[in-house]
Design goal:
This protein is of the alpha/beta class. 33% of the residues lie in helices and 20% in strands. It has a domain of 126 residues. The protein is built from 14 helices and 14 strands. Strands 1-2-3-4-5-7-9-10-11-12-13-14 form a 12-stranded parallel sheet. Strands 6-8 form a two-stranded parallel ribbon. InterPro entries: LRR_dom_sf.
Length: 432
């Protein structure tokens, strides 16, 4: 090719960028010329996905695993490590645990991590445990080696799903090395510990001991966290660690939060929400056994005025007519919003169960009054910025029963003002 016919290198990069999700094409482009190789390698090695290995047909253990192959590639071509930006570890459901090779259990895995110094996003996905099984955890040696390897990184995103830390100390140690995080996702992540630690005084004692050993006394290195996902049975342990003055995470910078609420964690969740002045998007998933009536007092309500930047609110709850009604609690929470709130989008997902035979007409009428009051509240001048109110009714009933569709429609009829305002959206579906 004549020199005058050559394109600028930036144009080659632009052309190759269109092939970012076509691995075969990228491999071919990488062999064309030097100008194409760099852009092709960027996309080929930007994200690596590792899965566990089942036994081979001839051996009880898989020998040439993906982890070992990639590690060998990095050793032979060290410059490729700089291209790796994201690493996803996807463990699969194990049929024969004794012969399955976990990625995080491989000897080469910590060594591979230590080579990926440019890694910015790390994700661990473990299989859902069965009804009688525990969540996956790491052995003491595996945890030590993995944590040591992670100290070489400047992670901006860390995600863990279906995992259990063996101790509170291990959880704190993980946070200790994540000093540049912008996204933290702990999805169904628990901490195996004694129930006595749920005592506030006992928990504070443990935090003081652990944090003094592992966390800096200065606040200059706090990570400005922007996105936080917390789904756990141990929020009463996790949240105090995150809120502790010596934590490396600055929660005042959080913009997006997804969190589950259990009867045991409600008060600490309320405290957390009061410490997020810049939150813009909030998703609350309330467990079905939550007692709304027990938290209607002003001191128990989430104070929306402490979240002046909130633009999007999503609440998932259950409605058990005659037993559980979240609407008064939701109304009380929204009534705390200030006149300067900028809430634009509200989504309410209601799982409706079939009412008991003992449900009276008076009790049902009281439930309808709650929906009518919610309609009045959301059409007040306080919520002039509201652009959409979406209701999703999930009908948990036998197929062919028209009771629940009729009930949900009665709820919707109480929202006449929202409907006239043109901001109401309603959808129905059946839970199978």
């Amino acid at each position: 090719m004549a020199s005058q016919d050559r394109l600028y290198a930036e144009l080659y990069d632009y052309i190759v960028d269109f092939l970012h999700d076509d691995e075969d094409a990228l491999r071919a482009c990488a062999l064309v010329c030097r100008d194409w190789a760099l852009a092709s390698r960027y996309h080929l090695f930007y994200q690596i996905r590792l899965t566990g290995s089942a036994p081979s047909p001839t051996r009880s253990w898989a020998q040439n695993t993906a982890c070992r192959r990639i590690f060998a590639t990095i050793l032979s071509s060290p410059h490729l490590a700089a291209y790796v930006n994201r690493l996803t570890v996807q463990e699969t459901n194990v049929v024969r645990p004794s012969t399955y090779r976990w990625v995080s259990g491989e000897i080469a895995f910590p060594s591979l991590l230590s080579k990926l110094t440019s890694l910015r996003a790390l994700e661990f996905n473990f299989p859902n445990p069965g009804p009688a099984s525990d969540k996956t955890g790491w052995s003491t040696m595996a945890f030590r080696d993995i944590i040591e390897a992670m100290t070489t990184m400047s992670l901006e995103s860390l995600s863990m799903r279906q995992f259990s830390f063996s101790s509170l100390h291990d959880f704190i140690k993980l946070l200790d090395i994540c000093r540049h995080l912008k996204t933290l996702q702990l999805d169904h992540v628990d901490i195996t510990t004694s129930t006595t630690l749920f005592s506030p005084s006992a928990l504070e004692h443990v935090l003081n001991m652990q944090l003094s050993d592992s966390m800096s006394q200065t606040s200059e290195t706090k990570a400005n966290l922007e996105t936080l996902l917390l789904r756990s049975n141990n929020l009463s342990l996790i949240i105090p660690v995150l809120l502790h003055p010596r934590s490396f995470l600055d929660l005042t910078s959080v913009r997006h939060l997804t969190i589950n609420v259990t009867p045991e964690s409600y008060r600490i969740v309320v405290e957390l929400l009061g410490r997020l002045p810049n939150i813009e998007s909030l998703d609350i998933e309330i467990e079905h056994d939550f007692d709304y009536e027990a938290h209607l007092e002003p001191r128990d309500i989430i104070d929306a005025s402490l979240m002046p930047c909130l633009k999007s609110l999503s609440i998932q709850s259950s409605i058990l007519l005659g037993r559980t009604d979240p609407i008064p609690w939701i109304s009380n929470t929204l009534s705390t919003a200030s006149n300067r709130n900028i809430l634009e989008d509200m989504s309410l997902t209601c799982i409706i169960d079939k009412p008991p035979p003992s449900l009276t007409v008076q009790a049902f009428d009281e439930a309808l009054v709650g929906w009518h009051n919610l309609d009045d509240l959301l059409t007040q001048p306080t919520f002039n910025t509201m652009k959409r109110v979406r209701l999703d009714f999930i009908l948990d009933n036998p197929s062919g029963d028209d009771t629940l569709p009729s009930i949900s429609q009665e709820f919707t009829k109480q929202l006449q003002k929202l409907s006239k305002k043109g901001v109401l959206e309603v959808d129905f579906c059946e839970a199978r």
